Amino acid sequence: MDLGLKGKVALVSGGSSGIGLAIARDLVREGATVAIGGRDAGRLAKARDEISADLGVEVGTRVLDLRDTDAARAWADDTAAEHGALHIVVSNAGGPPAGPTGAFGPDGYRDAIDLAMISHIGFVQAALPHMRRAGWGRVLMVTSETIRDIIPKYALSAIARSGLAAYAKTLVHELGPGDVTVNVLAPGFTATDALLGSLEAGVDVDVETARIAEREGIPLGRVARPEEVAAAGTFLLSARASFVTGTVQVVDGGRSLGM
Q: Are 141 and 236 a contacting pair, CB within 8 Å?
């Protein structure tokens, strides 16, 4: 299936691992010009080299913290200047710490909102003028299933990220007619470093993810693979999804019981 992404220019923050890296790979396969960003220079270089070895394509890299709005804007501006346009932005940042509402004071909430909401908005605002100028754009903000189905032990995630759904819904009306869409990707439990990075050496990952699925009530009996979540996100970024905007796409293996 041709997703209509050949020749498009894309930025993927949090692109050195997990879902962000999987989306970057998909975009490269579809013929887009891709740059990935993240805080760890070593992990970015490793991801760049893996994509080059596997797909035979060079991707750009940028070391930055998405909370630094000036750095995010400079990345968007520099990319548009280098390639003549910017069409796609995948806004992906780390999540706040786990815990119930009472586990955090006001500063904890401020930090969570800065990371899980404001950083996304700043990056999107930096990219939108370039998309309008190009006459075509796709915005995808990667969040969590907690944006749709609250999990009390991840209180900060639900509280800080839920504002992005309202931002997307409002933004699409402000953008008005045209071919710029804004969507939210809300993955459930996924086999990323954030979920599995603390496992002890020698632990059977398949057994452990099955335990997580049983504990969390995932009907499919396992957690998602990053590429499964990325597939949904890449579709939302495609030309074929031109009439899909202002949505929250949950990818959670059926765990959520919300309508």
A: no
Q: What is the pLDDT of residues 147-198, one digit of tens each?
A: 988 899 999 999 999 999 999 999 999 999 999 999 999 999 998 877 776 6
The angle, 0 to 180 degrees and rounded to 10, between the axes of the packed helices 155-175 and 119-134 is 20
The answer to whether residue 130 sits within a structural domain is yes
Nearest one of 255, 257, 237, 125 to 247, comparing CA atoms: 237
CATH code of the domain containing 126: 3.40.50.720
Q: Is residue 216 part of a domain?
A: no
Helix residue spans in 101-225 (DSSP H): 106-113, 119-134, 155-175, 193-196, 205-216
For residue 164, what are the CA distances in angstroms to 11, 74, 139? 19, 22, 12
pLDDT tens digits, 10-55:
999 999 999 999 999 999 999 999 999 999 999 999 999 999 999 9
Provide the domain count of the chain. Answer: 1
Nearest C-alpha neighbor of 180 from the set 126, 243, 92, 250: 243
Q: Which residues of 14-36 are buried (b: 16+ CB within 10 A; e: fewer)?
A: bbbbbbbbbbbbbbbebebbbbb
Residue with tokens 């080059």: 52
